[in-house]
Amino acid sequence: MTATATRVLVLNSGSSSLKYQLLDMTDTQSNSGSGAGRLAVGLVERIGEETSRLTHTPLAAGGDKRETEGPIADHEAALKAVGAELAADGLGLDSPELAAIGHRVVHGGLKFTEPTVIDDAVLKEIERLVPVAPLHNPANLTGIRTARALRPDLPQVAVFDTAFHTTMPEHAARYAIDVATADAHRIRRYGFHGTSHAYVSRKTAELLGKDPAEVNVIVLHLGNGASASAVAGGRCVDTSMGLTPLEGLVMGTRSGDIDPAVTFHLKRVAGMSEDEVDVLLNKKSGLVGLCGDNDMREIRRRIDEGDERAALAFDIYIHRLKKYIGAYSAVLGRVDAVAFTAGVGENAAPVREAAVAGLEEMGLAVDASLNAVRSGEPRLISPEYARVAVAVVPTDEELEIAQQTYALVSA
Ligand code: ADP
């Protein structure tokens, strides 16, 4: 890496999408979280279809969002198209200023506890984890292979969603099932959204003016997918997602916690196939299953109009959230802060208010006027007197991936 190489390209490859951000780390280091170092952001959607779309925003050039529609056959074509957009702004992928490419990789199993420079052995290991992450790891691998082919000379770094959770103690990570069966099939709780939980718990400590090692935080990452984590002194000690992202909170389309016997029942009594049960629990449950909508804005609008199904869906969502706040308070013993993040956590004041309502005895409260403030900055929403700080801390997974990548390659 040359001394002038200060840019990191972050790639998040899905099965038919490619999200990217180009960041200048000399800026982001001095403006952590403010996004000042973001040079370009974009997204390729519907890869492999006739109607693929590339949306590119050249932030550094101060230009407007550009949209291109037309067939993009595969991830290689997608990355080349992204490269052409970046080159048009003078930020091409062949630039000597590019220090590394950071890849989001969903499942790192137990092996990857840190961001890792990708070589053939690492690729093989990510491949070995496909059976436990069949939806995500193959897409991540495609992104990595494509980027390596395009810039074989450049360090490529994998940043794993599971890594932050590898500090979970065995008693939190193990399911209470036969040990031999569990070990043979690598069945245990891995947790996801780790990059966000790491970033938000650290930012929350910063907001409190404390060292992360001194504080215990409950992070509530409430997006379309949602997860909670208990972070003690900067280390994750429990998280709500498990072997897969299905466990835990009520989500946009996933059920979260459910009696596993429901699945036998659906097969034996309702005659559903394995795949149908999978689709039901992952795609047709959660808020969408309960009321037909998974967007919290729409649910709140319906509640305001007196819609009872939407109100019940909201109550079920909040009830589960409260149970996790209670459970993780017990796991941590002492809670210094509860931090809300992601689409719902950052924007839905009624969710934050309802989640801590009635928890005053546990030291939790929300100040209505602070909670109503809309802002992209980390902020406290609890009143002065509250023993536990309640915070809204916007997550930034791309910045976290870029920082971890840059730290590794510039070390
Ligand atoms: P993901 O990354 O899991 O797709 P996000 O973190 O982007 O999800 O969150 C998306 C969700 O955030 C939407 O489905 C919607 O429910 C919620 N959301 C976004 N903006 C608002 C808002 N202004 N008010 C309430 N909810 C919002």
Automatic annotation (TrEMBL):
<dbReference type="InterPro" id="IPR000890">
    <property type="entry name" value="Aliphatic_acid_kin_short-chain"/>
</dbReference>
<keyword id="KW-0479">Metal-binding</keyword>
<dbReference type="GO" id="GO:0005737">
    <property type="term" value="C:cytoplasm"/>
</dbReference>
<feature type="binding site">
    <location>
        <position position="104"/>
    </location>
    <ligand>
        <name>substrate</name>
    </ligand>
</feature>
<comment type="pathway">
    <text>Metabolic intermediate biosynthesis; acetyl-CoA biosynthesis; acetyl-CoA from acetate: step 1/2.</text>
</comment>
<feature type="binding site">
    <location>
        <begin position="221"/>
        <end position="225"/>
    </location>
    <ligand>
        <name>ATP</name>
    </ligand>
</feature>
<feature type="site" description="Transition state stabilizer">
    <location>
        <position position="254"/>
    </location>
</feature>
<dbReference type="GO" id="GO:0006083">
    <property type="term" value="P:acetate metabolic process"/>
</dbReference>
<keyword id="KW-0808">Transferase</keyword>
<keyword id="KW-0460">Magnesium</keyword>
<keyword id="KW-0547">Nucleotide-binding</keyword>
<comment type="function">
    <text>Catalyzes the formation of acetyl phosphate from acetate and ATP. Can also catalyze the reverse reaction.</text>
</comment>
<dbReference type="InterPro" id="IPR043129">
    <property type="entry name" value="ATPase_NBD"/>
</dbReference>
<keyword id="KW-0067">ATP-binding</keyword>
<dbReference type="GO" id="GO:0005524">
    <property type="term" value="F:ATP binding"/>
</dbReference>
<feature type="binding site">
    <location>
        <position position="19"/>
    </location>
    <ligand>
        <name>ATP</name>
    </ligand>
</feature>
<dbReference type="GO" id="GO:0000287">
    <property type="term" value="F:magnesium ion binding"/>
</dbReference>
<feature type="binding site">
    <location>
        <position position="12"/>
    </location>
    <ligand>
        <name>Mg(2+)</name>
    </ligand>
</feature>
<protein>
    <recommendedName>
        <fullName>Acetate kinase</fullName>
        <ecNumber>2.7.2.1</ecNumber>
    </recommendedName>
</protein>
<dbReference type="GO" id="GO:0008776">
    <property type="term" value="F:acetate kinase activity"/>
</dbReference>
<comment type="similarity">
    <text>Belongs to the acetokinase family.</text>
</comment>
<feature type="binding site">
    <location>
        <begin position="295"/>
        <end position="297"/>
    </location>
    <ligand>
        <name>ATP</name>
    </ligand>
</feature>
<dbReference type="InterPro" id="IPR023865">
    <property type="entry name" value="Aliphatic_acid_kinase_CS"/>
</dbReference>
<dbReference type="InterPro" id="IPR004372">
    <property type="entry name" value="Ac/propionate_kinase"/>
</dbReference>
<keyword id="KW-0963">Cytoplasm</keyword>
<dbReference type="Pfam" id="PF00871">
    <property type="entry name" value="Acetate_kinase"/>
</dbReference>
<comment type="subunit">
    <text>Homodimer.</text>
</comment>
<feature type="binding site">
    <location>
        <position position="397"/>
    </location>
    <ligand>
        <name>Mg(2+)</name>
    </ligand>
</feature>
<feature type="site" description="Transition state stabilizer">
    <location>
        <position position="193"/>
    </location>
</feature>
<feature type="binding site">
    <location>
        <begin position="343"/>
        <end position="347"/>
    </location>
    <ligand>
        <name>ATP</name>
    </ligand>
</feature>
<keyword id="KW-0418">Kinase</keyword>
<dbReference type="GO" id="GO:0006085">
    <property type="term" value="P:acetyl-CoA biosynthetic process"/>
</dbReference>
<feature type="active site" description="Proton donor/acceptor">
    <location>
        <position position="161"/>
    </location>
</feature>
